[in-house]
């Protein structure tokens, strides 16, 4: 059973998503992020991928070099950061971070949004990912993407 980390700030989805990948609490991950100069109220956290990449690398997690366009749920790796709710404001891209996990063949999305009834989602038709970042432990093989 997965116990999702819920974001404690309206704009903390990136911090919560990394916490969901590495198994830390939101306050633990927020303290690490703040120590690296990353803050939830910085809108760049959900308009620039470098911040979550930095957090993941700090925790021993490698990421694909590029954002990979989403095609189908079946084509996702076993763990990925997904960009959903993609939109533009003043010509700048923004999105909501969620985590895709496949465990023993069962696919789910861990969505840290506090307003959800369930943060472990399988309502794939309701989500429209634009792209994803593949994540893996650093000692695993490098990515093709």
TrEMBL record:
Organism: Marinomonas gallaica
Name of protein: Peptidase C39 domain-containing protein
């Amino acid at each position: 059973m997965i116990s999702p980390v819920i974001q404690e700030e309206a704009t903390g989805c990136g911090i919560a998503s990394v916490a969901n990948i590495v198994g830390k609490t939101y306050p633990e991950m927020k303290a690490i992020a703040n120590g690296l100069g990353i803050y939830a109220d910085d809108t760049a956290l959900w308009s620039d991928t470098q911040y979550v990449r930095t957090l993941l690398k700090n925790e021993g997690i490698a990421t694909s070099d590029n954002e990979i366009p989403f095609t189908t749920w079946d084509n996702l790796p076993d763990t990925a950061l997904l960009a959903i709710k993609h939109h533009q404001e003043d010509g700048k891209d923004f999105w909501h971070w969620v985590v895709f996990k496949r465990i023993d063949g069962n696919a789910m999305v861990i969505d840290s949004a506090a307003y959800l009834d369930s943060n472990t989602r399988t309502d794939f038709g309701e989500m429209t990912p634009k792209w994803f970042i593949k994540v893996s432990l650093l000692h695993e093989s490098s990515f093709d993407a």
